[in-house]
Design goal:
heterodimer, A: about 325 residues, mainly beta, four-stranded antiparallel sheet, about 0% helix, B: about 425 residues, alpha/beta, 14 helices, Cytosolic Fe-S cluster assembly factor NARFL (chain B), metal ion binding (chain B), Fe_hydrogenase (chain B)
Amino acid sequence: MIRVLDENAMSRKLEPVCSLSGHTDRVWQVAWDPAGRTLASCSADKTVRLWSETGAGWSCATILADGHERTVRGVAFSPSGRLLASASFDSTAAVWDREQAWECAATLEGHESEVKAVAWSRSGKYLATCSRDKSVWLWELTDDRELDFECAAVLMAHTQDVKRVSWSPVEDRLASCGYDDTVRLYRDDGDDWVTGAVLKGHSSTVWAVAWDGAGKRIASASDDGTVRIWAETQPPDQWSCVALLSGFHQRAVYDVAWCPLTGLLATACGDDAVRVFAEEPGAGDGGAPAFGLVASVPRAHGRDVNAVSWSPTERGLLASAGDDNLVKLWRVSEE
Amino acid sequence: MVSAGGESRRLEKATISLSDCLACSGCVTSAETVLIEQQSEQQLLRVLRENAALPEPERRTVVASLAPAAVASLAAAHGLEAAAAARHLSGYLRQLGVQFVFDVGLARALSLAEAEDELVERLTRRGEPDAAPLPLLASACPGFICYAEKTHGKLLLPHISRVRSPQQVAGSLLKRRWAQQRGTAPDRIYHVALMPCFDKKLEAARDDFRAADGQDVDCVITPIELERLLEAEGAQLADAAAVPLDRLLEAPELLVHAGSGSGGYAEHVLRAAGRRLFGADPGPVQFTPGRNPDLLEAELAADGEVKLRVAIANGFRNIQNLVQKLKRRRCPYDYVEVMACPSGCVNGGAQSRPPAELDARAHLAEVRRLYAALPGDENDASDAVRRARETVSKELLHTEYHVIESDTGALNIKW
């Protein structure tokens, strides 16, 4: 059942702030630096662009080219904001250093095929990468000055292409998701990294996972058109699906972002829309969480929306990326 | 097998999948899968049955060689001490139709001696034009060899030791030396090896280990497969008679070595090279863990400075880091004992599963203890080792490697 979207019935509005053009091919992902002042975007045009706001508005401050030989599929800033990691179809991840005028300071090799995503652990100690080769790698920064990384673990839990990795915001615990329709969790058991829970329920590829601000729940976005919310029912490894957002998206949901400031969920969809959901605590069966659609933009991008990302510092500010080669900024109106 | 992700899985039959081997996709092709599947416990039973059905003069002599890691694994799984387990295995295999059962101790002693010579040679010639490069990397792990040949051939192969693994030295000794002494033609011998992982099957099938009269090792079976044989009969290992092993070329029945549960390569070469080049013997080597518990390092100092550095690098993450260091020419070691499995051969991919109630870590500790407790004094064996080295040609103790281009590797991988 697809619910009919009535923009006027939504309790809030998603206002366009600006549209940033420059990339010459589809934009795959956007990521904010921890200060919320720089926005990174990456593209099939093999570059990463850094955007920032000046008196005249948002514009492209830097283009990181010559780092990758193929599509750049994912980007992420380190917790300190000094480093930017990028994931590429050329099978490598690159690390760029703000303190060296964004020079490419390290190239992480080892994956057998396209690297789909990168993510920094909250502590800044680990960088996770995932690939079509079905593996998730953890890299440890071993030298702050030389920017040397060593492989700390190679996790072979997924049975297919791994699409995304995402760290808990409160501890060094990792989630990954992919073409095998599952979300998998990992933690360090002292000697080595081990797989904890496997979250099953989606009926197709899981494109993205995101943790809530408290690090207690996970949202997953799937090719099956739904978003699932999972909660840890019994630490450390028992999780179950506590809410299902179904009937809202007309196509694959390619990304989900969970704002630590507001608790709002944003989604990026293959039907060209960006949607925002708010939690209605206890509104589900037996007091389970439920989420209601509070704002949407049906034609947010001219084509598929690939990514959404909330500003870490400005409430309601949302960035999106699309197959129309554009990066867009939006603001959710207050209630 | 405990994968890098920490999951324990029961392997239903002896098929190799990508995650059984190294954590990479470049390693096992479908052609190799077939080669592996041709060596199984069922295959062994078939050979033994057919052999038994032949008139005696036409039968082949079936011999077995036992790796200590496999023996220790079965010992731990069956609550036996290692030497006892070896003897019950010997009894069990003879029950099945195997005529001679040997420990690989002598073969490994030869491997270690050759590795020592190789390192001393490379260290002596360091800096000379055309000198073979350092670090020298151990060659006993076929998972690593497979990965090196297919993924980093040009970079790694010059560093890899040319010495055959104990499994293959045993094959050389049995089919060339021992056969000759008995007046048996090599093709009248069927050699089965009990090894801790499936990758050893790939090693046995290599063209480099085939002569006109057959492979040096005909079939590799593993503890998992041996357990299946026992299970099929409803038997326990201890039910089989405890029969002493045969002694290969006058070596002791069982011959242990110092050092790791993967053959003690790093330990042996550090002490031997230390003695020969610097007149220093540190005694039993203390390895210190590096960045993770699967990377262990040791040094030898003489005249107040560090002269030698060796490492044990187990598991894919450490192989990756080693490769990166080699690429950047920043590898601090002279010798690295490289093994594909975390914790080394005692934790090989086809070792026996721990009994249900036991924690995997505790079980592994027990396997290690049993391995180290295997009897046999290296000093007692020195005559046998020396004689074997004098009478076996170098060619039979060494091998070569081949860069395998696999740009189209993804297409013939069994996804």
